[in-house]
């Protein structure tokens, strides 16, 4: 592909990404993979260049662009070398006309800026969309971080979580023998810190209420030294089914999987009521703390969807609270920096529930009764996390 043809490819993919954002369709990564699966002539350099152009245009456009071409013209306004590639050659973008729309540069849609500016300040907004590092977690059931740092010459220790380390961006993790042996998992350092906040230990009964594919469940299993009872729950059968091969590779044999019926979760959880030493509620959320990895996700979020997510968080937080034994711990977390999903949601819970005491955590900065991790300050994905002790 010529450089100009790469620009046109990025425009074509952008059109699909924009349409998907408006209809809650496939994620940008999925669309990119699908696009190149039918274009075998594109080499690895072509795919990398197209992807870089695509995500640069996405990160630059706060509001949903009117078209892929408008998004790329906006990027071309910042990059003369891109503007020069609108040359009208075959399979290349037509020259830019003076009257054509160009997406304005902005970090966020206006309504989200109004919510996040008071929380983060303008200086932290760019980091929400910067490229994320490749974070990994050493699996304590099989190895140590020190051993992996010795085995992997390009690995460096991450600054906060005790098992966290990093590899260069673009490393083909699944090609590494250490990954196939289950010595480590791909996991953002912030997620690892959430698992640490649970304080799980050998012999305990711990519940991961919104386990998904089980990344934090595996971290909890390692903290528990594979001893005790660890129950991974979720309402999504497809996501939960991904845990089985992962726990086998990690050697985490004590994990139980419990599929819940959405809206009727208490039926499956009844026998666990008031019995757990610790419950992790990593609730479904907007994912605003993960925009570094999925920058087009900010185009998908609407005030209406945020309200629905907030109601869902209230529901699962109540469910989790009912599972904690007296003296046990409830950890509430969202990979979001929006107060609606974090500090405000927790405040609403505490206002209607007595007998819960927030405890200090050695991470992030205070945010209401919890704490907040941010990409700018902590180098992690954005998270709100709170730990509550039941009387």
Secondary-structure topology with pairs:
Blueprint: H1 3-23, H2 28-37, H3 44-60, H4 68-78, H5 80-83, H6 110-120, E1 134-138, H7 145-151, E2 156-157, E3 164-167, H8 177-180, E4 184-186, H9 189-198, E5 205-208, H10 215-223, E6 229-234, H11 237-241, H12 243-250, E7 255-259, H13 265-269, E8 276-282, H14 297-300, H15 303-321, E9 324-334, H16 343-352, E10 356-359, E11 365-367, E12 370-373, H17 375-378, E13 383-390
Helix pairs in contact: 1-2, 1-3, 1-4, 3-4, 9-10, 15-16
- Strand proportion, as a percent range, falls in 15-25%
Here the CATH topology of the largest domain equals Rossmann fold
What's the total number of strands?
13
Residue windows where pLDDT falls under 50 for at least 5 positions: none
| CATH homolog superfamily of the largest domain | Vaccinia Virus protein VP39
DSSP summary: helix tally: 17
| Global Rg | 22 Å
Taken in chain order, the helices and strands follow as: HHHHHHEHEEHEHEHEHHEHEHHEHEEEHE
Main sheet summary:
9 strands, mixed
The CATH architecture of the largest domain would be 3-Layer(aba) Sandwich
End-to-end Cα distance, whole Å, is 65 Å
């Amino acid at each position: 592909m010529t450089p100009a043809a790469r620009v046109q490819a990025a425009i074509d993919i952008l059109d699909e990404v924009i349409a998907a954002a408006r209809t809650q369709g496939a994620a940008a990564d999925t669309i990119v993979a699908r696009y190149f699966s039918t274009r075998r002539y594109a080499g690895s350099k072509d795919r990398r260049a197209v992807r870089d152009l695509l995500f640069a245009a996405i990160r630059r456009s706060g509001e949903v662009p009117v078209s892929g071409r408008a998004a790329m013209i906006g990027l071309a306004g910042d990059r003369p070398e891109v503007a020069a590639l609108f040359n009208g050659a075959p399979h290349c973008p037509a020259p830019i006309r003076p009257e054509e729309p160009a997406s304005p540069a902005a970090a966020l849609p206006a309504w989200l800026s109004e919510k996040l500016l008071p929380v983060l300040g303008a200086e932290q907004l760019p980091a929400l969309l910067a490229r994320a590092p490749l974070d990994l977690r050493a699996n304590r059931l099989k190895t140590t971080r020190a051993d992996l740092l010795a085995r992997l010459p390009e690995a460096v220790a991450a600054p906060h979580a005790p098992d966290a380390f990093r590899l260069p961006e673009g490393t083909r993790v699944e090609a590494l023998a250490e990954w196939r042996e289950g010595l480590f998992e791909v996991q953002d350092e912030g997620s690892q810190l959430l698992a640490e906040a649970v304080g799980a230990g050998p012999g305990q009964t711990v519940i991961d209420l919104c386990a998904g594919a089980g990344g934090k469940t595996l971290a909890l299993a390692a903290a528990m030294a594979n001893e005790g009872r660890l129950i991974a729950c979720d309402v999504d059968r497809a996501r939960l089914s991904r845990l089985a091969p992962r726990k086998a590779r990690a050697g985490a044999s004590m994990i139980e999987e419990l599929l819940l019926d959405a809206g009727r979760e208490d039926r499956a959880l009844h026998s666990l009521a008031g019995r757990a030493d610790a419950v992790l509620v990593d609730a479904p959320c907007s994912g605003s703390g993960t925009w570094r990895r999925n920058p087009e996700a900010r185009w998908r979020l609407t005030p209406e969807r945020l309200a629905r997510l907030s109601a869902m968080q209230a529901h699962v937080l109540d469910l989790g609270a009912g599972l904690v034994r007296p003296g046990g711990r409830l950890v509430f977390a969202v990979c979001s920096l929006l107060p609606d999903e974090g500090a405000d949601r927790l405040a609403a819970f505490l206002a209607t529930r007595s007998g819960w005491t927030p405890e200090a955590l050695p991470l992030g900065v205070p945010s209401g009764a919890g704490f907040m991790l941010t990409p700018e300050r902590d180098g992690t994905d954005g998270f709100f996390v709170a730990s509550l002790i039941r009387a």
